[in-house]
Design goal:
The protein folds into three domains: 172 residues, Penicillin-binding protein 2a (Domain 2); 294 residues, 3-Layer(aba) Sandwich (Beta-lactamase), CATH 3.40.710; 126 residues, Trypsin Inhibitor V, Chain A (2-Layer Sandwich), CATH 3.30.10. The chain is 36% helix and 21% strand. The protein is built from 23 helices and 31 strands.
Length: 756
């Protein structure tokens, strides 16, 4: 081969070799750039992930206080999570067995399960979470007694507690196994309450095994923020107590709601729903009837039924359920008419017992089938006349009616700071016909939430301003400083102050003399309206069954300077079981009365009695226990009270007891029964009779023959009957005990012939 050819081949080979080397180094360089610069952070994170194990350390969840700022409704307390360090144990089978056998009864765990965990190839394994301090101490004692220094460790943790049990449970909600909010305020304010979790970072060796704890890094958790509510625990407890009373008395089948709101700010001071539950143990069903029904089901159906029962008792009916407001809505329709000027207080309409809507074959009926006759505007409301409201709706027209319905907040969620607010059902301008307008004018076929109704009523009360309902007043930092305060400025003005005052005065008369007298409270100038709405949709599904009702009462006080609005409603009172009581005045009115009579004095609303009310007002029993009988009788005579003596009346004998007790209420012409020394008080007892349905004359007679006295509540008692008594029939009490009776008329102010 020629020399020149050899040199050319050699040169070519060198070039090729050089190019290959260059290309190889180029690929290496590109790869280095890719892994170091482009994906460097990703690779670093993956390397750390492979070499580190990170364990979450729970943050302390923020506390929830009631409106006083002193009562704790929800708080987190320290508990402990117990973890194993198996690599300190797995070489000694006898030690593993000792640990498993000793810890199993303390932790209420299976011994074999613990034994298996002690054999894992790890320095970190969860054993049991959130154990109380006494359990941790018992574990510590076992470890100390058996000189076990390594292998078991304690990590700080937190557990949620609700000190008042069922109180406000549907508002508060509850937390899950990982301390996360699952319902109510716990869910809605999760980001504020939960805090920031800490981390326990442990190293792993080249084989992926956890390194001992000396190679750890601990990053502390940051506590969550706290909430101060607008809800007052005392008010809340009163609402819940009386709702439960009403459910039992009126055999209510589908729960109940009571909402009390400051009319000027939208602050909700009490929001009670039934059924409810204990957030400390939310998976326990409290309704014994529901439990019995579940137990009676075939085994394969029980799980689904149990789940449904959980969701029902967790559900906040005040926010998540809609209902027909019924005649309560007439205050809204009346305000529309006055504000628009289509009627005045002097306007009249003749109610013949029905209203003929164009296109309908029959008139839509009034609850008073024979009709109310000629009525002015005020009478149309306080008589709860359906035709008057249908007439007013026709004067307003679809567009104007819908404009005010929107302005009062009935077509959009209120935005209350609670989860699960329901969407309303209503006819809009485009779809509302003459019949729809007529029926919605008196509160049927308009599906709203209870919180919307009490918010709209507050606008009637406060001069016409729609407010923002809310249950949280302020949010606090862990050090107690205020981070945020809820804005209470009105959202908009819906009606004028003049219209507001006019409707309020009508509602005041209604509570004292009209169809809402069941909600009257002496001294507190109640303005109120009843509702007895028909559950037409349910009835249409099966017309072989009787119509079901929602009995409600919505009002506010004092009428001359409104402070608080209250809505009470009972879903499906069973008239077949409670003597035929389904109307708002008879069912919801007396409960409204009891709540207002108890909460208004507590909230600082001063009673101002008329002369007539003052004359009827109960007095207070003086203290005459422990004094000679002669002195006791003289004190009672001076107080204008009668007396009777049970026991010895010998000179100088001492009064050992009195009924009613000192400070108790009793009628002004009432009697104090004096028990003297030497007499067995338990012999002077009587059983409380059932006063339900009696008028005043017969109730007084029944009390007298049973050695009891009565205290009377309610307006226009002459034509009313007993709806509530404060001591249940059948209970044994001392002779002379005063039974408080609440009177109301059983008026159903809603029923009409449903369309379709």
């Amino acid at each position: 081969m020629a020399k020149g050819t050899t040199e050319r081949i050699s040169t070519k080979a060198k070039w090729i070799t050089g190019l290959l080397i260059f290309a190889g180094f180029g690929l290496v360089l590109v790869s280095l750039i890719r892994w170091q610069l482009v994906r460097g952070e990703e690779m670093e994170a993956r390397a750390l992930e492979q070499s580190l194990q990170s364990t979450t350390i729970s943050a302390m969840r923020g506390t929830i206080y009631d409106a006083t700022g002193t009562k704790i409704l929800a708080q987190s307390a320290s508990v402990w999570t117990i973890v194993l360090e198996p690599n300190y144990l797995n070489d000694d089978d006898a030690l593993r067995r000792k640990v498993a056998k000793g810890l199993a009864p303390i932790l209420d765990m299976d011994e074999e399960e613990i034994y298996e965990k002690t054999g894992e190839d790890s320095y970190f394994s969860y054993l049991k979470r959130r154990v109380e301090t006494d359990v941790r101490d018992a574990v510590n004692e076992f470890l100390t007694e058996n000189e076990i220094e390594s292998g078991v460790r304690f990590l700080p943790d937190y557990k949620r507690y609700y000190p008042y049990g069922t109180v406000a449970s549907n508002v508060l909600g509850f937390t899950g196994s990982d301390n996360q909010g699952l319902d109510g305020l716990e869910l809605y304010y999760e980001s504020e309450l939960r805090g920031t979790a800490g981390r326990l970072v442990a190293s792993k060796n080249a084989w992926g095994t956890d390194m001992p704890f000396e190679y750890e890094q601990y990053v502390g958790a940051e506590d969550g923020h706290s909430l101060v509510l607008t809800i007052d625990e005392t008010v809340q407890s009163i609402l819940e107590k009386h709702l439960a009373e009403g459910i039992e008395k009126y055999k209510v089948k589908n729960g109940a709601v009571a909402i009390m709101m400051e009319v000027d700010t939208g602050a909700i001071v009490g929001l009670a729903t039934k059924p409810n539950y204990d957030p400390n143990d939310p998976y326990t069903i409290l309704d014994a009837t529901v439990l019995a029904e579940i137990e009676a089901l075939p085994e394969e159906e029980r799980d689904a039924a149990t789940t449904n029962a959980w969701y029902k008792q967790w559900r906040n009916k005040a926010v998540s359920d809609t209902y027909y407001p019924g005649s309560v809505f007439k205050m809204i329709t009346g305000a529309m008419g006055l504000e628009e000027g289509v009627v005045t207080l002097d306007s009249t309409y003749t109610c013949t017992g029905g209203f003929q809507v164009e296109g309908e074959p029959e008139p839509l009926h009034c609850w008073k089938r024979e009709g109310h006759g000629l009525e002015d505007f005020s009478a149309g409301i306080y008589n709860s006349c359906n035709p008057w409201m249908m007439h007013l709706g026709s004067l307003l027209g679809v567009e104007t009616f819908c404009k005010y319905r929107d302005a009062f907040g009935f077509t959009q969620p209120t935005g209350i700071d609670l989860p699960g607010e329901a969407t309303n059902l209503y006819h809009d301008v485009e779809t509302m016909g003459a019949t729809d307008l007529a029926v919605e004018s008196f509160g049927q076929n308009l599906s709203i939430t209870p919180v919307q109704m009490v918010t709209a009523a507050s606008a009637i009360a406060n001069g016409g301003y729609l407010v923002q309902p809310h249950v949280v007043d302020r949010i606090l930092a862990p050090d107690g400083s205020i981070l945020k305060t809820t804005d209470t400025a009105p959202l908009r003005q819906v009606i004028s102050e003049e219209t507001s005052k006019a409707i309020t005065e009508i509602l005041r008369y209604n509570a004292e003399n009209g169809t809402a007298s069941g909600g009257y409270v002496a001294g507190y100038r109640i303005a109120g309206k009843t509702g007895t709405s028909e559950k037409v949709a349910k009835w249409n599904e099966d017309r072989s069954k009787p119509m079901e009702y929602i009995a409600s009462y919505c009002g506010f006080a004092p009428a001359d300077d409104p402070k608080y609005a209250l809505l009470v409603y009972f879903d499906e009172p069973d008239g077949s079981e409670n003597g035929g009581l389904t109307g708002g005045n008879a069912v919801a009115g007396p409960i409204f009365t009891q709540i207002m009579a108890e909460t208004l004095p507590y909230l600082g609303v001063e009673a101002r009695y008329t002369e007539e009310e003052y004359e009827e007002l109960d007095t207070v029993a003086p203290s005459v226990t422990g004094v000679p009988l002669e002195d006791a009788i003289a004190a009672l005579d001076e107080a204008g009270l009668d007396h009777s003596v049970i026991g010895s009346e010998a000179e100088g004998v001492i009064v050992s007891a009195q009924i009613p007790e000192s400070g108790s209420a009793l009628p002004r012409d009432g009697e104090v029964v004096l028990y003297t020394e030497g007499y067995a008080e338990d012999e002077a007892t009587t059983q409380v009779p059932d006063f339900s349905g009696l008028d005043l004359v017969n109730a007084s007679y029944l009390a007298s023959i049973n050695g009891l006295q009565i205290s009377v509540n309610g307006a226009d008692i002459s034509s009313a009957a007993v709806m509530l008594q404060n001591i249940k029939a059948g209970e044994t009490v001392q002779v002379g005990t005063v039974i408080s009776l609440t009177f109301a008329e059983n008026i159903n102010t809603e029923t009409f012939v449903p369309v379709g």
